[in-house]
Structures are given as structure tokens and as C-alpha cells.
TrEMBL record:
Localization of this protein: Membrane
Record's protein name: L-type lectin-like domain-containing protein
Membrane topology recorded in Swiss-Prot or TrEMBL: Single-pass type I membrane protein
TM annotation in the entry: 294-319
Record has Acetylation as a keyword: no
Organism, scientific name: Trichomonascus ciferrii
This protein's UniProt keywords: Membrane, Signal, Transmembrane, Transmembrane helix
């Protein structure tokens, strides 16, 4: 009997430690949505993908990339899911590359989409105007946007009636955005991480300058209502100027325990505490590493290791008491 109790106690302690480790390394309960992931090989022998459609000038090299447009003039391409994403709280992380022969003049850019349906081809980064849903645009050519350095990344919510403000690079439609100088022809593949917390916040982080360092492009509590369901996709376009737009991979996660604020998310994931401004309000700072997140993981791990050690000590105490009882019985 005592052996069974000790074994159960040890197993419970180890399970608690495993759960704590998982919570510390995955603080918001990310659960991968495998059907929407984009990974090699992108198409099968029949040149189709079970969960995605592609069109326009998209070219696929199974061992390297999905090229939405080549570095040629007047090209459009897209890659859109057949399976809907049910908007709740989720995160999409994707790897991409924007590159070409042009070193100072190039265009036009690419987009990440969450729309009510797979769109037709059109003039807004390769898809039709007056779309219904959210677009995040990686705009590489400046038309008329004073005070903004390009490439420029911005989010827009389409209501199915409003047109994209192409003449002013989306100024009339912008929810939030940031300059991303150096994104074109960067030294390494770029990564973007889009986080959407229903009734909470929306954020975009970029990683293209230093390996492992995520910079906040934007975060806002002005959270748009997404179409239900939403179809995820990518598109790109070139015009008189050109560049290549490649999608390398994408992972989609549901957040089962979403953060309550971007500040909480940024601290736990990136180790950045919100900076205090002159008015006493917090704002997310740039740069940074993962020290805060690492320290939190260490504290929780040590706590649960102590718990396991306590269970082990209790088991040893029970064992010693059992041996003493047997020994005393022989003496009698």
C-alpha cells in the first residue's frame, strides 16, 4: 500500500512540474492549428495543396518558397486558405522575404489578409478593392505619404464598400502602422508575428534586423471586428517597378488563455516592461531581449522542482517509517 502511495505522489509531482514547465514556456496556451500552417512541401505531385489555393503569377518551388511575384513588372499573385479561421484570440507567425535587383527604387509590396472569402485578383497588393476584412500591407513604394519612411507596414479594415487610398499609401484607411526601413533586401529572411486578442488588442511584431530580436511595429486596442469566418492569405503585386515576394512558412495558433493586455504579452514573451511616460501611462518600449520572460520561467520552474523535491522527501519519510515499523516488529 505504501509503495503505491509513494509512486502516486511522485507521479503527481512530476506531472505538476511538467504542467508548470509547459505553462512557463507557453504562457498563453498556444495551440497550433495545423491545417492553416504553411510548410514544405507546399504542393503535392498534382501541384495542389489540400488547404490552400494559389493564383495569378504565383510560382512554387517546393524546397524553398512560394513566390507570389517574380522580380518583373506588372505581376500579381496570391495564396489563400480554403479552410476558414474562426476569429477569437489567435496568433499568426510567418516567414517571408522581399528582395530584388533594385537597390533604391522597387515596388509595390505584399499583404497579409483575413477576409470573408478568398478574393479575386485586383489592384490592392494583388487582390480586389473594397474587400471585407483585415489587410496588413507591406508597402515598399512611396506614392504620397509625407513623414513616413518606406517600406511602410500598416493595417486596414475593409467594410466591403470603402476603397484603399492608393494615392496616399493608405493614409485615409490606416488603423496602425510603422516604418520598416531595411526590410527590402534584408540580410536574412524576415519574420512577422500578428497577435489578435478579441476585445483586447491587436499587434504586429517584426524580426528582420537582428536574429531573435522582435520589434513592435504596432499595437492598438482599437480592435476591428473580423468577418466570421475569416480566410487567411497572402498576396503581392508589382507595377512599373518590381521585386520578388516570397512566403517561406507560416504557423497559426489559437490562444486558449489570451493575455489581458499587450503590456502583459510583451513582458512575458519578450521580457520588455512598459515604459512610463511623462503622463504616467505605460507604453511598450522597443529593442530588448527575453530576460524578464526567462526569469519568470526560472522562478516557476524552481518552485515546481521544490514541489517535486517535497513529494520525494515525503515518500522517503514514509519509506523510512515503514522500515522502522518492520524492524520494531521483529524486535518484539
Amino acid at each position: 500500500m505504501w509503495r503505491a502511495a509513494v509512486t502516486v505522489g511522485l507521479m503527481l509531482g512530476l506531472c505538476a512540474a511538467a504542467v508548470a514547465f509547459e505553462e512557463a514556456s507557453n504562457p498563453f496556451g498556444r495551440v497550433q492549428s495545423g491545417m492553416l500552417n504553411i510548410e514544405q512541401p507546399y504542393v503535392d505531385k498534382s501541384l495542389t495543396n489540400r488547404y490552400y489555393d494559389y493564383g495569378g503569377d504565383t510560382m512554387i518551388r517546393n524546397d524553398r518558397y512560394i513566390r507570389l511575384t517574380p522580380d518583373k513588372q506588372d505581376k500579381r499573385g496570391s495564396f489563400f486558405s480554403k479552410v476558414p479561421l474562426i476569429p477569437g484570440s489567435f496568433q499568426v507567425e510567418f516567414e517571408f522575404r522581399i528582395h530584388g535587383q533594385g537597390s533604391s527604387i522597387y515596388g509595390d509590396g505584399m499583404a497579409f489578409w483575413l477576409l470573408d472569402r478568398a478574393p479575386n485578383e485586383g489592384p490592392v497588393f494583388g487582390v480586389e478593392d473594397k474587400f471585407n476584412g483585415l489587410g496588413v500591407f507591406f508597402d515598399t513604394y512611396k506614392n504620397d505619404r509625407p513623414g513616413r519612411a518606406f517600406p511602410y507596414v500598416m493595417a486596414m479594415l475593409g467594410d466591403g464598400r470603402s476603397s484603399y487610398d492608393n494615392e496616399h499609401d493608405g493614409a485615409a484607411n490606416e488603423i496602425a502602422g510603422c516604418s520598416a526601413r531595411g526590410l527590402h533586401n534584408s540580410d536574412r529572411n524576415a519574420r512577422a508575428r500578428f497577435t489578435f486578442v478579441k476585445d483586447g488588442f491587436m499587434a504586429l511584431e517584426l524580426n528582420y534586423k537582428s536574429k531573435g530580436v522582435w520589434e513592435t511595429c504596432f499595437h492598438t486596442t482599437d480592435v476591428p471586428g473580423l468577418p466570421v469566418p475569416s480566410y487567411m492569405g497572402f498576396s503581392a503585386q508589382t507595377g512599373e517597378l518590381s521585386e520578388s515576394h516570397d512566403i517561406i512558412s507560416a504557423q497559426v495558433y489559437q490562444l486558449t488563455q489570451p493575455p489581458t493586455s499587450f503590456a502583459q504579452y510583451d513582458e512575458l514573451v519578450n521580457g520588455r516592461k512598459p515604459a512610463v511616460t511623462a503622463d504616467g501611462k505605460g507604453s511598450s518600449g522597443g529593442g530588448g531581449g527575453g530576460f524578464g520572460a526567462w526569469l519568470w520561467w526560472l522562478v516557476k520552474s524552481v518552485f515546481y522542482l521544490l514541489l517535486v523535491a517535497g513529494v520525494a522527501y515525503l515518500a522517503f519519510t514514509l519509506y523510512r517509517a515503514h522500515k522502522r515499523k518492520n524492524r520494531d516488529g521483529y524486535i518484539l
